[in-house]
Amino acid sequence: MKKILIANDLPGIGKVALAPAIPIFACCQIETILLPTVLLSSHTGGFKNIAIAEQTEFMRQSLCQWENLELNPDAILTGYFRNTEQIELMVDTIEKLPESTKIFVDPIMGDNGKLYSGFTAEHVDAMRKLIQHADVMYPNITEACLLTETAYPTVKITMDFTRELAKKLAELGPEYIIITGCPDSEKLTGVQLYTKETDSFFDFYKTKYPHHFYGTGDTLAALATACILQGMPIEDALSFTLQFIDEVLQLSNQQPEQIPFGLPIERKLGMLTTKFTTEVSL
Fold it and tell me: Would you give the end-to-end CA distance of the chain in angstroms?
């Protein structure tokens, strides 16, 4: 069974970050090694009085133990880091692993044209060093702009603009750039895939629903990564992932009062178990 190390925050309430990743990878027949960067009583969207405990020293001790145990995962998936020191720990770890280790980076640090609160230019610089090691990355448009020092658009975002962003990101290292949250119209949204080796693009669009769904990007990164690790061509991995997310969003859209608590992925995990139990056993 393949193993993946996942570095991300862990909420008590809300299916974001590590919370959806754990069941998704399990259903896709991939063993997880968990590295929480921050513990939260709930995710930060729609809740108040949140208890937060950053885990930099815990990360350091965990990575030290795992190095002594000679744990060499098949892949690493990174998400939210609380500070630049955590990113530097991750870079140091990656540089000690075999070159065959696949690196997936979701550079979580901003949205809607702005850095998240508490982050600075130093965080962007550190993330830039991390993505130099990435095989696949999942930035949203804001993060792509920050990493490439591109001004965030004040007018409608076009496909030509996101294509240029993807090419700039590829120059920093990754082979595959998957830009999320790419608008096609008021009714469609999706992702844009750029493959550096072939200088080619592939676009995927699904229905845009009238709510903000917490954890959608985390779910996409986890499931797409799992599909790729299990040998699916990246285009097929994204197509299957977006189909899964669309079905979950349809369910969530029917219960708007539950949206702050995250996507109801439990009701669709059977899709993953059926697909990957069958395919892995063949």
Answer: 14
Dihedral angle at the C-alpha atoms of 25, 29, 33, 37, nearest 10 degrees? 0
| Alpha carbon distance 170, 237 (integer Å) | 20
Beta bridge mates, 30: 2
Please state, in angstroms and rounded to a whole number, the distance separating the CA atoms of residues 242 and 154.
28
What is each CA distance from 170 to 94, 101, 165, 180, 197, in whole angstroms?
19, 19, 9, 15, 10
Q: What number of residues does the chain have?
A: 282
Alpha-carbon gap, residue 163 to 179, rounded angstroms:
9
Q: Residue 54: which H helix or E strand, with range?
A: strand 52-54
Using a 10 angstrom Cβ sphere, with 0-12 exposed, 13-18 middle and 19 or more buried, the burial of residue 243 is middle
Q: Residue 278: pLDDT above 70?
A: no
Total Cβ atoms within 10 A of residue 45: 14
What average pLDDT score do residues 270-276 get? 95
> Would you say the pTM of this structure is higher than 0.70?
yes
pLDDT in tens, 37-92: 999 999 998 899 999 999 999 999 999 999 999 999 999 999 999 999 999 999 99
